[in-house]
Amino acid sequence: MMRCGLILLAVWMALSGPVLAVQPDEILSDPALETRARDISRGLRCLVCRNENIDDSNADLARDLRILVRERLVAGDSDAEVVDFIVARYGEYVLLMPTAGGANWVLWGAGPGMLLIGLGIGVLFIRRRGRPGDEPAGLTEEEDARLQEILRD
Amino acid sequence: MFTELGHFTLILAFVVAIFQTFVPLIGAQRRWPGWMAAGETAAITQFLLVGFSFAALMHAFVTSDFSLRLVVENSHSAKPLLYKISGVWGNHEGSMLLWILIVALFGAAAALFGTNLPPTLRARVLAVQGAIGVAFLAFSLFTSNPFLRLAVPPFDGNDLNPLLQDPGLAFHPPFLYLGYVGLSMSFSFAVAALIEGRVDAAWGRWVRPWTLAAWIFLTIGIALGSWWAYYELGWGGFWFWDPVENASFMPWLIAGALLHSAIVVEKRESLKAWTVLLAIIAFGFSLIGAFITRSGVLTSVHAFATDPERGVFLLGILALFMGGALTLFAARAEAMTSKGVFSTVSRESGLVLNNLLLGVAAFVVFTGTIWPLVAEMFFDRKLSVGEPFFNVAFTPFMVAIGAALPVGAMLPWKRARLGRVLRKLVPAAVLAVAVAALVWAMQSGRSALGPVGMLLATWLVAGAVTDLLNRTGTGGLWRLRRLPRADWGRAVAHGGLGVCIAGVSAMLAWQQEDIRVVQLGDTVDLAGYQITLNSVSRIEGPNYISTMGDVTLARGGGDIATLHPEKRFYPVAGMPTTEAAINNGILRDIYVVVGDEQAGGGWAMRSYYKPLASWIWGGALLMALGGALSLSDRRYRVAAGAAKPTRAEVPAQ
């Protein structure tokens, strides 16, 4: 697949778009369970598709997974248990929201970390800008204290 | 014949671009006026050559010349004319040629409209733009040549992907590329300024219109793509956080930051080094976008190995331009000491916050996009980063931007009193809280998304109105008409962001759906509307066969509309598409899709109630309109007008 991105996107969509994703016969009769099933399947990746959740996908595998999710729910599993069940079989690749475990802290920490660094730099910059005049900045408090120290000696 | 000429002019353009890279650059260094001026001629010549080449490829598509490999793979004689034309850029090679055409177009525009620039700066801008042209022309000629022939031409072509045979998508790539490539102008200006060793207010004024234009095109391009996804893909999703989408979203965010920081350079001669850095990074993200979408490395890690040549070439271009520009930046950053002094509370600080939030937001999108690759390469983990992650990690930054924006937009330059601005915004804040409370009371509980979204949206729109009224001062409402266009542009674009946020949060919070098997004549009740499937018939289109439903939409006994959802099958491509039927309204869309005929009789039908759907794209259009208003402000027109009398004649071919 070496075409332009649009084509990639389109091909991926083509695998999923035209036929309906969730089929009427899959839907559970209990609306509360069905809502939970929909919520869970929105967070699970269709393994044979391109970055698509199983709720939107029409691939056969996605359908199997949707039915599996519903079977576990009917069997009385909690949401977390259903997800664990699927992850145990298909690996963490199915999770569209990666866990924060292991090296993933870098991913989760990237935004807040960058924000803190940026804020620090921004505040320093604005503070410095705030000083009137373009002449070389005067001594900092530390330098001033050090100077006093030296003069005292 | 025509095709060979097109191929030939493309090679000529490559040679001219090499000339355009070196001659003006040397001329500017040695102060030789003739060599500097040669850049303009070269830029215009290059544009004409690439333009001819592009026209030749389009000619091949329109006349269905199936001796060209590209035409065979992406066209069919029965295809409507519009899609024969859009087929030119509906594939890798042709879209690359469009990209090159736009690089050359911007170069030629800089040559024509840049007559008020200092000659050395203009020569250097054109040289850098020429270098970008050289890189992509080489990429096209050596790895993705659109003019390759077939020894044995087939009788007919394989047709364009049916999903691309759509008016929304026909115009999506040209706008997107005008945006992506438009950022190459900001890049060229930044590098030229670094070579000059001089960044001043005038530079800020020259670079801002180009950035603004690129940003407007990018906004429209992204909105078109999202709108297409909404009506074409059959379930009304409008944004998927796909790597390909992120590739266009990151430059949009950075360009947004850049066009704000360029104002500070222009008006206050501050933030210079940062603005130059942003201009470099913005184009860097454009290149990363091109790399992501064309190498396939991120959508599927294994696609990289299937054709490493193109991916490696693009990576080389990225490394060359980013490495070169950043090295230059490191060497010359000293020369860009800022002059303007401002206090902690001032519009300058507000714009620094804007840049910080937009920059970090883009960084979050970037990390999320490349993380699967990094995790697999360095930690041996195969994982996915999808929509739920971005919703959690990205949204807080948008909320912060939305919350701070109306205040920042009204702060005066240099030194401001926060209390004074906040007092003016009290009515807007009260209105926003009132709307949020009303929405909270009306909705059926659970989600905070809707009320928070409406709070932000109202705050932004009311803030934009307050901003405009504030600008009129004591002069009364009639002064609104005499405000500079830049003020109007600012208010419209900021209000547009609010409208867009309202649409997105309403869609995410209050959408309702109904999926079921219906028999002919059955009625579905959805959010107070009655949707009846009357009949389903088969209809022949020009190059497809359609299964078309006839659906009546009614409310409270009165018919509102008749809708025709379709399933089309394109026999040549062997692919089906869904054409959803949408009843557009100001406050809601009703979205109906007909699916497969069921074994036990009846049809699968999905109906959606999509509140404020059109506000998403309406908001994006408002943002683009605000940009256009700002671009037409007098200070840019005066600069352009002053240049006219001295404009050099266009050299003949």
TrEMBL record, chain B:
GO CC terms in record: plasma membrane
Tree of life domain: Bacteria
Protein name: Heme lyase CcmF/NrfE family subunit
Stretches assigned to the Cytochrome c assembly protein domain: 89-295
PANTHER family in the record: CYTOCHROME C ASSEMBLY PROTEIN-RELATED, CYTOCHROME C-TYPE BIOGENESIS PROTEIN CCMF
Bilayer topology annotation: Multi-pass membrane protein
Gene Ontology terms describing biological process: cytochrome complex assembly
UniProtKB keywords: Cell inner membrane, Cell membrane, Cytochrome c-type biogenesis, Lyase, Membrane, Transmembrane, Transmembrane helix
Organism: Pseudooceanicola sediminis
